[in-house]
Amino acid sequence: MTSFSSVLVANRGEIARRVILACRAAGLRSIAVYSDADADAPYVRLADDAVHLGPTSAAESYLSIERLLAAAKESGAEAVHPGYGFLSERAEFARAVVDAGLVFVGPTADVMDAMGRKDRARAIAERAGVPVTPHFDPTDVPADAYPVLVKAAAGGGGKGMRIVRAATDLAGAIDAAGREAAAAFGDDTLLVEKYVEAGRHVEVQVFGDTAGHVVHLFERDCSVQRRHQKVVEEAPAHGLTDALRRTLHDSSVALCREVGYTGAGTVEFLVADGRAYFLEMNTRLQVEHPVTEEITGLDLVQWQLAVAAGEPLPLTQDEITATGHAMEVRVYAEDPYAGFLPQAGDVLGVAWAEDARIEADLEPGAEVSTAYDPMLGKIVVAGTDREDARRRMVAALDDTGIFGVTTNLGFVRRLVAGDAFAAGEVHTAWLDSDAAAELLTPPVLPEEAARAAALLWARYEVAGTDDPFGVVDGWRSGADPAPLLVALTDEAGRRWSFGLTEDTGEDALAIIDRDGVTIAWQAQTWTLEVPDPMRGGHRTGAATDADLVSPMPGTVLRVDVAKGDAVTEGQQLGVVEAMKMELALVAPYDGIVTHVGAAPGDQVPIKHHLFTVDPNPPPSSASGAE
């Protein structure tokens, strides 16, 4: 056995917090690491000790093996837990940790080498008898093979993936996926496989110990995805036959035995038409591990620590049972109604549901940047069955609000409350289909939400602690109540007017000041302002239809036009990159470029004015200095 008493948590945010708490429960000393951006983060304060890594850039902090090992040496750590993301699946990191005389909480570097790449993992899966999808040479894809999926051989998280439906689009998809893969993983090797339409993403949680024992802890369904990244996860997977479930479990255990797997891992499958196809293996703890914990009653991080210390698995396969149903939603700083683009800003307020398990490290005053993954936290609920869990999740989302940063909360609330999700009809491509068009359309502010905002603002404006007249009830001597008139203007420019005569109404989560109210209603946030007669309207400085603004904070990779250029509708004007994603900005119509507001390499904030395309420019607008 390899005992240890201290663990360096080589990660940040909610997973760092999760591991720190597990270490505390196990009686182990925890050491946090942090970049400049995370110096004041809650997880840093929670740990027993903390070591500064370096600048905000992940390359100079959480992705720096040299700095992480130096932090371990400085703090006297004896083991390293990588969490997920960053270096968690990098064999060179696991190898460096062991070479430094430390314990790596995870599989061996050799196993990570074998399973961490999709091409090698596929070959091992075939040897173990695991069902796989047909694959093709990228330079020789048969005409009848389409649609196909181009995906990076290294890494995951949806980076370097493209669905290709026609041979004419293959070269462009390979080029784009290769660039993304190189930027995200330092490796542009790609696989081309048959794309299975309308498939479900089902994965099996596995665990192995150093004595060769391997068990599964049942399966999860993670079919709700955008850009190949998961949004909602649940356990167990619904609607599977007993035979298919056995195939998933047995194949996953066989794969682990084939490679001598130790620690926590996940074997991912695509399920369609009653069959399962191997996708990949994640050689780490998964973001969605809490739903497995909720149905089994087990602590997977505690299991990781025990196995890393050389202890046998706490339970045999026959001793592992599951009851009920659990769901998790990921809370992202992103705009679902603008292509799920990452968002940034200062967190002004946070309210989490009390009747749910919350995995988050977010507090008011925190700055959300695009330097790291946009996930802010997770909401987890458990119920007696799937429908019970679903209803509990809707209720939990109704009791959640994040202010100051655009999030996906309202979107996931609408999704989980919707008929398609309730019926189990959502597959991995559902959000990209016409069936999701309404869900991806920005919701309209309901009148009841506007009224609740008006009441909240009225309370804020007139209520006094000790003043009997500071109540929103319209009371006046010898006459009927006089309504308190409140007028607010929403983000669409609509004016709402209410005559309030009593201080009653449904309470809502909100932040309020003299200028107006930002309210969370069914998890969606809206800002309503008190109209300012001095400026004669709701907003100033709004962009026109001719303007193209940056949809996310990021780096300008390309500027393909100059002021005065004639462009056609759909022509690429430039490319912005954030979170290792590239987004092309295209001309909305034929016209003349009359403004270019950035150069390659510039860091731009969200809504930065990048280009203007004027369909009918005056004669002097196409040339000359601005």
Describe the protein's architecture and organization.
With 626 residues, this protein is of the alpha+beta class. Helix content is 24%, strand content 30%. It is globular. The relative contact order is 0.08. Residues 464-470, 534-542 and 620-626 have low confidence and may be disordered.
What is the approximate shape? globular
Calculate the mean pLDDT score and round it.
90
What fraction of the residues are assigned to beta strands by DSSP? 25-35%
If strands are numbered along the chain, what order do they take across the biggest sheet?
Answer: 14-13-10-11-12-15-22-20
Low-confidence stretches: 464-470, 534-542, 620-626
> What percent of the residues sit in helical stretches (DSSP H or I)?
10-25%
Structural class: alpha+beta
Characteristics:
alpha+beta; globular; 8-stranded antiparallel beta sheet; 30% strand; disordered C terminus; 5-stranded parallel beta sheet; 626 residues
Task: Write the SSE topology.
Layout: E1 6-9, H1 13-25, E2 29-35, H2 42-46, E3 49-54, H3 65-75, E4 79-81, H4 91-99, E5 103-104, H5 109-115, H6 118-127, E6 135-136, E7 148-152, E8 161-164, H7 170-185, E9 190-194, E10 200-208, E11 214-226, E12 229-235, H8 242-259, E13 263-272, E14 275-282, H9 289-296, H10 300-308, E15 325-332, E16 334-335, E17 341-342, E18 345-346, E19 349-351, E20 357-360, E21 367-368, E22 375-383, H11 386-398, E23 401-403, H12 409-417, H13 419-422, H14 447-462, E24 484-489, E25 495-500, E26 509-513, E27 516-521, E28 524-529, E29 547-549, E30 554-559, E31 566-567, E32 572-578, E33 581-586, E34 591-596, E35 603-604, E36 609-614
Parallel strand pairs: 1-2, 1-4, 2-3, 4-5
Antiparallel strand pairs: 6-9, 7-8, 7-9, 10-11, 10-13, 11-12, 12-15, 13-14, 15-22, 16-17, 18-21, 19-23, 20-22, 24-25, 26-27, 27-28, 29-36, 30-32, 30-35, 31-34, 32-33, 34-36
